[in-house]
């Protein structure tokens, strides 16, 4: 009877090493371990369920291509989340560019639709829309903290900045969010 | 919100997230106990976080995530594999584009490559080049004949010779002919006899020839690889030698010189000819010349630098050994032949570098488009034009009269308008350009014998003058040349008519006085 495999904290490293040694199945295990977190980050960042799996798969394709070059200097998870955040940023940039080339009438329609939706929708949607309006550099730390429960250290590594900056950005994000939600105070806090 | 409270709130936010040190935690908690504002703020933070957490509901699971991902990874692998397969083709394509762009914007690269190639080829043929003396010994008679017949023997067996010439369009060419060459004899002696030269004058002729004989040694080179190199300066040396001999002859015995060479006197000008000769020789006195290299395999042009001192020593030694019949130096036998089959195929011409080479079974005929030209002081074109313009403006206002002696056409062309307010003196230099040597004597001779007013002033002199202008000078559009010439022609025609009429009147009035 084979010895039972004991999973440790640094299991990611073991799996990465096994993959580098040629064991393709180790990659599948890494995907299983991290896909939900990756999908969650994408969902909160992009605020759209349609794109979650596409972006997440792109993230793992990139991880697969570059895994041989992983240097074991940071947590594997941090490395994956950094790739995820960058992919999300790319996606949001693409959407922004695409909007610039959307016909004027279409954008008007969408704006109206959005307005109606926000007026009629529930508190959750109001809050999500308010968060989506936050600048990128404020939104990411806030979501990683409040939704994903990352520590300041993890956030700093994922978005590649100092801990002090993370602290300041989270505070500013909260102030901004409060400001955006102020008109709906009565609805939200009924 | 003041800066202080802002900082407090930021600390509070970090405290709320559990990201403060123990010391900071106590500090904040103390402040919270005393400040209702901070307590409200903390409450707000809690509510906001609650709202944020509630707004993002858990996302549904994706059952096919792994299988889709595996499919994507496979496709990605395939795409990368294809990219790797075609990488050489892409690389080649990119390289081609780079090369095209490089050559487009930096054409010198290609030129340098060809230059290097040419230099390498030249290296095969131009080693160990010696003066022509090593192939044939040129006598004074040969040099003299070179001046007037433009032929030089290339070997001692009289099989091959070099012929200089000018074609109908005025372009210079030279030919290497390999039918038997007949060395002309006694021309130098006839020249001395006809001019009735005394011993001292004969020595002077010999010394002129000797100087050129030495200089000619640098103009035609040979080596043991059957290479013949002909300098493009040879044309200039031929001109200078001819002019030198003619000047000497005119000076030595003018009357006899006219008898043997009626046109010779016309082309020799005691003032300008020596200057021209000097200029030609100074210009060509350097060690580097442009040579046309002939070999059985190839013909090409190449700049080649000779070691003058080494040449002098070799010539001296060669002559000394030749006197003693000692053969330390090997005599080279130059035999430039062309395959008759090639000559049949290429009956007309082909281009080799800057040369235009004509082939037939009897000779190489090489047109040298770029013969190094020398600067000769021409009359200033602008001053001449100003003079002519001034004169033309005033033609109608003046009445003309001529001095008793009609101006003879020598060097100047003089008009004196004595009864006008101003006098105009046309001082048109006779054209002493190198064309003197190029143009055959017959033309000049007939010109000399005709009366001055029949000389086609417009057609010949101005046209020659303009054609011979240095290239740089031609670039400037000083005036519409053709239009000006046309106008001038018409005006000069009218002038001619008037002059003829005046001449008739003068003759008529003379007759009248006699009667």
Explain how this protein is built.
- The complex is a heterodimer of chains A (190) and B (515).
- Chain A has 190 residues and is mainly alpha-helical.
- Chain A has two domains: 94 residues, Rna Polymerase Sigma Factor, Chain: A (Orthogonal Bundle), CATH 1.10.1740.10; 88 residues, Winged helix-like DNA-binding domain superfamily/Winged helix DNA-binding domain (Arc Repressor Mutant, subunit A), CATH 1.10.10.10.
- In chain A, 74% of the residues lie in helices and 0% in strands.
- Chain A is built from ten helices and no strands.
- The longest helix of chain A has 25 residues.
- Chain B is α+β, with helices and mostly antiparallel strands and 515 residues long.
- Chain B folds into four domains: 53 residues; 42 residues; 237 residues, no CATH class; 134 residues, no CATH class.
- In chain B, 55% of the residues lie in helices and 10% in strands.
- Chain B contains 21 helices and eleven strands.
- Chain B has a six-stranded antiparallel sheet with strand order 2-3-4-11-10-9. A five-stranded antiparallel sheet of chain B has the order 1-5-6-7-8.
- In chain B, a hairpin with a 2-residue loop joins strand 9 and strand 10.
- In chain B, helix 1 packs across helix 3.
- The chains are: A mainly alpha (190), B alpha+beta (515).
- At the A-B interface, helix 2, helix 3, helix 6, helix 7 and helix 9 of A face helix 1, helix 3 and helix 4 of B.
């Amino acid at each position: 009877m084979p010895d039972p495999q004991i999973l440790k904290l640094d299991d990611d490293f073991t799996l990465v090493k096994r993959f580098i040694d040629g064991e393709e199945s180790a990659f599948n295990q890494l995907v299983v371990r991290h896909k939900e977190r990756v999908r969650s980050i994408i969902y909160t960042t992009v605020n759209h369920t349609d794109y979650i799996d596409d972006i997440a798969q792109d993230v793992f394709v990139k991880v697969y291509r570059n895994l041989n070059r992983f240097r074991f200097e940071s947590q594997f998870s941090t490395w994956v989340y950094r790739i995820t955040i960058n992919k999300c940023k790319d996606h949001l940039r693409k959407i922004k560019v695409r909007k610039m080339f959307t016909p004027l009438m279409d954008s008007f329609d969408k704006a109206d639709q959005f307005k109606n939706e926000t007026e009629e929708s529930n508190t959750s949607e109001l809050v999500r829309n308010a968060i989506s309006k936050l600048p990128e550099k404020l939104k990411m730390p806030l979501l990683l903290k409040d939704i994903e429960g990352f520590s300041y250290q993890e956030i700093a590594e994922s978005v590649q900045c100092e801990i002090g900056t993370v602290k300041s950005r989270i505070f500013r994000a909260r102030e901004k969010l409060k400001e955006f939600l102020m008109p709906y105070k009565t609805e939200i806090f009924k | 919100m003041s800066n202080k409270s802002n900082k407090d709130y930021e600390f509070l936010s970090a405290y709320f997230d559990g990201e403060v040190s123990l010391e900071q935690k106590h500090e904040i908690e103390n402040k919270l106990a005393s400040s209702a504002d901070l307590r409200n703020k903390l409450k707000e933070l809690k509510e906001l976080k609650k709202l944020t957490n509630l707004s993002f509901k858990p996302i549904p699971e994706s059952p096919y995530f792994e299988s889709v991902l595996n499919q994507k990874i496979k496709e990605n692998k395939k795409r990368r594999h294809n990219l790797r397969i075609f990488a050489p083709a892409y690389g080649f394509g990119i390289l081609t584009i780079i090369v095209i762009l490089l050559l487009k914007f930096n054409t010198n690269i290609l030129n340098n490559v060809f230059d290097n190639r040419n230099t390498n080829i030249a290296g095969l043929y131009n080693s160990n080049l010696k003066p022509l003396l090593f192939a044939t010994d040129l006598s004074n008679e040969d040099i003299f004949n070179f001046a007037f017949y433009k032929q030089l023997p290339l070997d001692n067996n009289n099989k091959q010779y070099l012929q200089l010439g000018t074609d109908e369009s005025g372009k210079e060419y030279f030919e290497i002919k390999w039918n038997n060459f007949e060395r002309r004899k006694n021309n130098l002696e006839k020249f001395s006899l006809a001019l009735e030269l005394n011993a001292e004058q004969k020595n002077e002729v010999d010394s002129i020839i000797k100087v050129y004989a030495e200089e000619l040694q640098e103009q035609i080179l040979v080596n043991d690889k059957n290479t013949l190199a002909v300098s493009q300066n040879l044309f200039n040396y031929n001109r200078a030698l001819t002019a030198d001999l003619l000047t000497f002859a005119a000076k030595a015995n003018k009357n006899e010189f006219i008898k043997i060479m009626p046109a010779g006197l016309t082309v020799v000008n005691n003032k300008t000819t020596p200057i021209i000769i000097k200029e030609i020789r100074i210009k060509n006195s350097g060690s580097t010349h442009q040579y046309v290299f002939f070999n059985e395999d190839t013909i090409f042009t190449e700049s080649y630098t000779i070691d003058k001192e080494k040449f002098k020593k070799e010539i001296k030694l060669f002559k000394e050994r030749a006197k003693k019949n000692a053969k330390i130096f090997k005599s080279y036998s130059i035999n430039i032949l062309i395959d008759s089959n090639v000559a049949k195929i290429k009956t007309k011409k082909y281009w080799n570098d800057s040369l235009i080479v004509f082939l037939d079974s009897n000779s190489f005929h090489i047109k040298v488009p770029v013969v190094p030209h020398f600067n000769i002081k021409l009359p200033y074109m602008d001053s001449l034009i100003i003079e002519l313009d001034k004169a033309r403006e005033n033609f109608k206002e003046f009445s003309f009269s001529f001095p008793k002696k009609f101006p003879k056409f020598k060097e100047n062309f003089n008009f004196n308008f004595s009864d006008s307010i101003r006098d105009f003196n046309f001082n048109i230099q006779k054209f002493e350009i190198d064309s003197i040597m190029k143009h055959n004597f017959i033309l000049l001779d007939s010109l000399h014998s005709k009366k001055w007013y029949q000389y086609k002033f417009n057609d010949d002199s101005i046209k020659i003058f303009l054609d011979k202008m240095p290239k740089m000078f031609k670039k400037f559009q000083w005036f519409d040349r053709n239009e000006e010439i046309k106008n001038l022609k018409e005006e000069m025609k009218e002038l001619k008519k008037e002059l003829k009429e005046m001449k008739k009147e003068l003759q008529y009035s003379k007759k009248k006085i006699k009667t």
